[in-house]
């Protein structure tokens, strides 16, 4: 991790906000799920340090979608190991994760936003269930679409109804022109 020195002002506030979002319970759940899926224990390191090189993440995505990451770099400098994280991100995106659920490489490699990394792993767990992964599960199952079919008669009947949601609303009219009993002295 790069040494940036002390933080001040809004940067310090943002870092405190990110640290406040971190849940050791969610981290533990993610770690246990990864261990169950890949069939091996994390190294004797803290959660974020164990994930930092991207090797475990690449093994995970390869278990969910075999062949997603063709080559996992197990040695080399920081740049080589960052390639693992990038390969995982590309494979997760191809697996169906939206960009909003992914994390940036620096979030993990420089420990800038570990809660986002954990959120990504939990999202991957939800998508694995949706894709009928036959293994351990993480988090709630994503709901399926519930598309409804209406007849023309039902649609016409619905057009004549007044929506209850809008009853009593002024539909954006301003109250600035109303007299509230205030007098203005000039």
From TrEMBL:
GO cellular component, one term: actin cytoskeleton
Domain Calponin-homology (CH) stretches: 24-128
Alphabetical list of SMART domains matching this protein: CH (SM00033)
A single GO BP: actomyosin structure organization
Keywords: Actin-binding, Calmodulin-binding, Repeat
This protein's name: Calponin-homology (CH) domain-containing protein
Protein's UniProt keywords contain RNA-binding: no
Species this chain originates from: Adineta ricciae
Alphabetical list of Pfam families matching this protein: Calponin, CH
InterPro entries membership: Calponin-like, Calponin/LIMCH1, Calponin_repeat, CH_dom, CH_dom_sf, SM22_calponin
PROSITE patterns assigned: CALPONIN_2, CH
One GO MF term attached to the UniProt entry: calmodulin binding
Lineage: Eukaryota, Metazoa, Spiralia, Gnathifera, Rotifera
Protein purpose: Thin filament-associated protein that is implicated in the regulation and modulation of smooth muscle contraction. It is capable of binding to actin, calmodulin and tropomyosin. The interaction of calponin with actin inhibits the actomyosin Mg-ATPase activity.
Similarity comment: Belongs to the calponin family.
Matching SUPFAM superfamilies: Calponin-homology domain, CH-domain
